[in-house]
């Protein structure tokens, strides 16, 4: 009798597990390469909606996603390289500020985003830093430091 009950429970769990797993797992994956400042950055989106287009503004430190969704409850996981934009990230969905879960490591900001509603939407991600700005200035800083060292050595020799 216990074997029959155990077999029944096991069968039910096997039958339910694929459906329960599918509820939490977004489906559409898109990797978008953004070229800016002489660098290429891959932004990865796995979501229940379609990313139609993406724009990047280095002046505004902003990534804009143009999306289309056909279901009411939407879920997305977005990986943004911290060398593209970083800092305190701010998110806007159709002009309204939203507060997704953001985790960061040394390479990426990992964003988990949930929202409701169907149709064509706009998602904006705004950072406070655009790191390739520094990489354009770095050669000037290095050259200035070397010139300063050479001048200091010449002054001390006299």
The averaged pLDDT comes out at 82
> Which H/E pattern describes the elements?
HEEEEEEEEEEH
Largest sheet: 5 strands, antiparallel
User: What is the radius of gyration computed over CA atoms, rounded to a whole number of angstroms?
Assistant: 24 Å
| Helical content (DSSP H or I, runs of 4+) | 25-40%
Number of strands: 10
Head-to-tail CA distance between termini? 100 Å
Structural class: alpha+beta
Supply the number of structural domains: 1
Strand content: 35-45%
Given as residue ranges, the uncertain stretches (5+ residues, pLDDT < 50) are 15-23
Strand order of the largest sheet: 1-2-5-9-8
How many DSSP H or I helices? 2
Global morphology: elongated
Task: Explain what the structure shows.
The chain has one domain (2-153). 31% of the residues lie in helices and 45% in strands. The radius of gyration is 24 Å and the shape is elongated. The chain has 158 residues and is of the alpha+beta class. It contains two helices and ten strands; from the N terminus they run αββββββββββα. The strands form two sheets. It has a five-stranded antiparallel beta sheet, with no helix packed on it. The model is unreliable at 15-23 (pLDDT under 50).
SSE inventory with pairings:
Layout (H helix, E strand, L loop, with lengths): L1 H23 L3 E9 L2 E9 L2 E8 L4 E8 L3 E9 L8 E4 L2 E3 L2 E4 L3 E9 L2 E8 L5 H26 L1
Antiparallel strand pairs: 1-2, 2-5, 3-4, 4-10, 5-9, 6-7, 6-10, 8-9
